[in-house]
Design goal:
By secondary structure, the protein is an alpha/beta fold. It contains 9 helices and 13 strands. Strands 1, 4, 5, 6, 8, 9, 10, 11 and 12 form a 9-stranded mixed sheet that branches. It has a two-stranded antiparallel ribbon with strand order 2-3. The chain starts with 5 loop residues before the first strand and ends with a helix.
Length: 289
């Protein structure tokens, strides 16, 4: 049986304010991380690396949601001459718009996102990972799945997932055993989620319920939304809803596949000085073997 093709939505609209001076002139997804490979010294960044990995994995459609300094992001990506579709989050103050709001703009664009025809990969625009991380999710069964790294540092900043691989139940930072009803920890959420076509309709309905349905009567409760944060809602809240519906599983990988998110200036330094060079060395070894 042939697998349903993939599309990807990369969320790259945020300010990245926790990186301080780094993102005043350069949007976070465009921050340089090092060379494309050990044999190609061309400087790459968070966004370019993800796009190229998705293309190498034969993902059919890649949608990038932009907002903060969007003209710079669009112009830079276009200079790479890669087949990318842009969707703009036009919210004047992007700090008032959460990541789920950005995803809603992608879903409501005329690009067939969450229309039931392709498996949808939803991912952050500020992560660095080995190609095997993406492959683990793409090669998994056609079910909505949250990708989890079994590494747990315990610094309180990790968004950890609890439950079982077949039925994750909780996710969040610094959750105590009481707050997860004694469920075991599966590892850290990676910022990469697969939404299967069978679940697209409920995802769209849930999103409009939380954020507000733009098609509803202006000023009505349905137009305003019923989620506590409304347009400030993050996409993790959609994932939690999918857990409640029992429509989400986990795909887990181990520490042998490098992956890292970048939230602040210290982590950015780690990415550039230690983590990404390790990824490049591993990839070079694999090519040589």
């Amino acid at each position: 049986m042939m697998q349903t093709p993939y599309q990807a939505v990369i969320l790259a609209a945020g300010r990245g304010s926790r990186l301080g001076e780094h993102t005043k002139a350069i949007p976070k997804p465009l921050l340089p991380i090092g060379p494309r490979s050990r044999i190609d010294p061309t400087e790459t960044c968070f966004l370019r690396r993800s796009i190229e990995l998705l293309l190498e994995a034969n993902v059919r459609q890649i949608v990038v949601v932009v907002g903060y300094q969007r003209d710079q992001v669009i112009a830079t990506v276009e200079s790479w001459q890669l087949p990318v579709i842009f969707v703009v989050n036009p919210t004047p103050d992007i700090g008032q718009s959460g990541s789920l709001h950005s995803f809603q703009f992608a879903v409501r664009s005329p690009n067939g996102v969450l229309d039931g025809t392709m498996q949808t990969i939803l991912m952050d625009g500020d992560i660095v990972y080995h190609a095997g991380v993406l492959a683990a999710l793409l090669e998994s069964p056609e079910r909505s799945s949250l990708q989890v790294c079994d590494r747990v540092i315990g610094d309180g900043e990790e968004c950890l997932v609890y439950g079982s691989l077949e039925r994750p139940r909780f996710l969040g930072k610094s959750l105590t055993p009481n707050l997860v009803a004694g469920q075991p920890c599966l590892g850290e959420m990676t910022g990469i989620t697969k939404l299967a076509p069978a679940d697209h309709a409920v995802c769209r309905e849930t999103m409009d319920w939380m954020l507000g349905n733009p098609d509803a009567l202006q000023g009505s409760p349905a137009h305003k939304g019923f989620g506590p944060a409304r347009r400030g809602t993050e996409y993790e809240d959609l994932i939690e809803r999918m857990m409640r519906y029992g429509r989400l599983t986990c795909v887990r990988f181990g520490a042998d596949l490098p992956w890292m998110e970048c939230d602040d200036a210290d982590e950015y330094r780690t990415v550039r000085e230690r983590f990404y060079p390790r990824v490049l060395d591993l990839e070079a070894e694999e090519r040589a073997s």
